[in-house]
Structure formats: C-alpha cells, structure tokens
Amino acid sequence: MKLFFDNIIFSLQRSGGISVYWFELMQRLKHRADVHYVNYPGTRYHIRVNDLGAFSYPGVKDFRLPIFLTRFLPFLTKLPAGSVFHSSYQRVALQRDVVNITTVHDLGYELGNMRTGYRRTIHLFFKRLVVKRTDGFICVSANTRKDLLYFYPFIDPATVTVIHNGAGAAYRQLANIPATDHLPGRYVLYVGGRDPYKNFEKAVKMVSLLPGYDLLIAGGKPLSPAEKLLLNVQMPGRYHARTNLSDDELSLLYNKAFCLLYPSSYEGFGIPVVEAMKCGCPVIVSNSSSLPEVAGESAITINPLDISAGAAAIRSLEDPAFRATKIAAGIVQGAKFSWDTCAAQTLDFYHDIHTRKFGHHR
User: Fold this and answer.
1) Model's pTM, two decimal places?
2) Cβ distance 12 to 71 under 8 Å?
3) Across 62-183, where does the E strand assignment appear?
4) Could you count the other beta carbons within 10 Å of the beta carbon of residue 175?
5) N or C, which end of the chain has less CB nearby within 10 Å?
C-alpha cells in the first residue's frame, strides 16, 4: 500500500491550523518506505516546510496549472493501483483503483462563516465533487462529523471517523519562564486569524473594559488599517501584535499570558485551545461548535457576542484558587490530544478504508 500525500496546503497557506495539522502528520509518517509526496513550485512558501524536508523524499510533481486553479481540480497523474491518496486540502485522484482520503477541518463554507458570494459558490461546487469521490473521511472533532453528515446526508457514516488534532512538543508548562523585556506585564492572548466569525472586534472590546490588561495578538496576517483604528480607539497603547512565530515563541506567549481569549463563533477544532491548555494557560472560549468538546470542563465558556460577559470571565481568573483549578483541569484535558496519537489513528484508518474498498491489502 503506497501512500501519496498532496502538499498543496503549503502553497496556499503560510501559517494556520490546516498547515499545522498537515506538517505534524507528515513529520510522523515521512520516514515510512511507502510514502511519496506531491509537491508544487510554491511549496516553500510555508514558514515550516523546510523543517519537513519534503523535497528530499520520493515524490511526484503537479505543475500543470497555476496553483489557484490546481487547488480546485482533481489529481490526474497515474498512481499505482491500490495506493492511498490523501490531500492536505480537498483534492482527490480520479482513479477508481485508488483510495481517496479527505480530512474535514470544518464546515464553515456550508454554514456561511468563511465566504459569501461567488467564492463560496465555487468552493462548495468543487467540494461536493470531492465528497462524492472520497472513500474515507477524517473529521477533527465529533462536532465536525455531525456537521458533515448534516450537509452531505448521502455519505455512509461508516466511512467517517473522528481523529482529534494535537499540539506540538513545544507546548508545555515551562519550569523557568525566561525574563522578557518585549512583552507586557499582564496580557490577554488572542491567537489566530481575524475573520468576522472569529469575533476579533468583540475580543478587543472585552479587554478594553479591563484597564489593567493589555491585548497581545499572535499569528495571523499583519494588522490591517481598520484593525489598527479599532485598537487605537478602544485601547490606545495597550495592544501588541506578533506574527510569524515559531512554536517555542508562541509557547512562551501562552506561558506568560493571563489567559487565552478565543471567542470564535465557529471552529472545526481550535488548535490554540489545546496549545494553551498544555502550557498551563487558562482558556476562555465560545460556547458553540467544537470548542466545548475540545476544552471540556477546563475552560470558561461564554457567549462570544456578550462583551460584558467576556470581560467578567477574564476578571474571574483573578481569583487565585479558581485560576489554579482551571489551569490544573486544562493540563489534564490537554494531555488527551497528541499528534502521535493522531498519526497512528490516521494510519489505521488508511488500512481500514483500504480493506473496506478492496477487501485486502495490496
């Protein structure tokens, strides 16, 4: 059984949850003798792809068309019969004698959270084609599995499994937190993108109600002029932004943070929540989608649209006993999520779906 991994996400995303998932999965499967990569001219665009060493392993190239077109099209190169094709971003091989695996990270487009207009229409058209060609689906949370089967009821539930994401080894409680002059004394941490459904504006307003706290914005794209205007109006001199962070740098931010504020209305999983818990950083999350599933009882859950409730949740962590309880619960909950486990379960799933389709291992 040969495994073909489509690295297209590294040409589409410089950083982000999907590329983190793919990088961690590839790190654990790349040494297998039966692994082959599908690489692209822009693969080196991603900030960590050189750490993976994808270009030093056996592979095939898919250079026919520009990447903005290739991302929507099926993989056409002939593969050995009985191979497994797993794309990092919604592509399938057209061959009938190949097993197609698709990881479903969220159903944001179906819910209307990600895009509207023609972009959403195009995305959903091609996604439906991928869904129909997929032999086995990996969902990153039970909530995502539920959403997938709701929007695509023709899928056989037996072909859909839940395999949770993890967090890298760098995300842990530091015994000795180094002194840093470049970080504020007490800050609330916001990690990730700032699309409308992420409720970044609400997060800013929550922290703005607490004069004793700064807001540190980590990851995502550089602040836009509109975002800077919002911050300067709501909390002048009390915000900081960091981009292109290494795992070690982000781990330090979690370790020093007063808490992680993650008020997204919809997430397929929410990797920053696990990273924070493993670092002993208290977590405040939305009471919707997969976030309660991932955070468990360790997090404070809020209505992400209720600004005063968000501010009160932050303030509640000033109680030392309550804070210690949440940190301890987060360490226990975070330990349930591992990239090693994710990789092992993924490999088992390949075999299960391969056997389901062909009746034996080729």
Assistant:
1) 0.90
2) yes
3) 84-87, 99-104, 136-139, 160-162
4) 5
5) C
Encoded tokens for 275: 């990273």
How many residues in the chain? 362
Give dist(CA 17, CA 153) in Å, integer.
Answer: 26
For the chain, the straight-line distance linking the first and the last C-alpha, in angstroms and rounded, comes to: 6
Range of the domain at 66: 3-166+339-358
Q: Could you tell me if 105 and 113 are in contact, meaning their C-beta atoms sit under 8 angstroms apart?
A: no
Q: Name the 3-class secondary structure at 114.
A: coil
Contact 223, 243 (CB under 8 A): no
Q: Is the pLDDT of residue 241 over 90?
A: yes
Give the pLDDT score at 244: 86
* Residue type present at position 223: L
Torsion of CA 97, 102, 107, 108, to 10 degrees: -110
> 191 and 302 share a domain?
yes
Tokens of 2: 């040969």
Same domain, residue pair 121 and 79? yes
For 257, how many CA atoms within 13 A lie in the half-sphere containing its CB? 31
Q: Report the C-alpha gap between 236 and 147 in whole angstroms.
A: 40
Pair 19, 41: CB distance under 8 Å: no
Give the three-state DSSP class for 218.
Answer: strand
Q: Are the beta carbons of 277 and 304 closer than 8 angstroms?
A: no
If you search the block for the tokens 């619960």, which residue do you land on? 329
Number of structural domains, the chain? 2
- Per-residue pLDDT of 299-343, as tens digits, reads 999 999 999 999 999 999 999 999 999 999 999 999 999 999 999
User: How far is CA 308 from each of CA 126, 172, 209, 292, 319, rounded to the nearest angstrom?
Assistant: 41, 31, 8, 20, 18
Cα Dmax for the chain: 64
- How far is residue 11's CA from residue 74's CA, in Å, rounded to a whole number? 16
Is residue 172 in some structural domain?
A: no
User: Is 176 domain-assigned?
Assistant: no
Euclidean distance between CA atoms 166 and 339, whole angstroms: 5
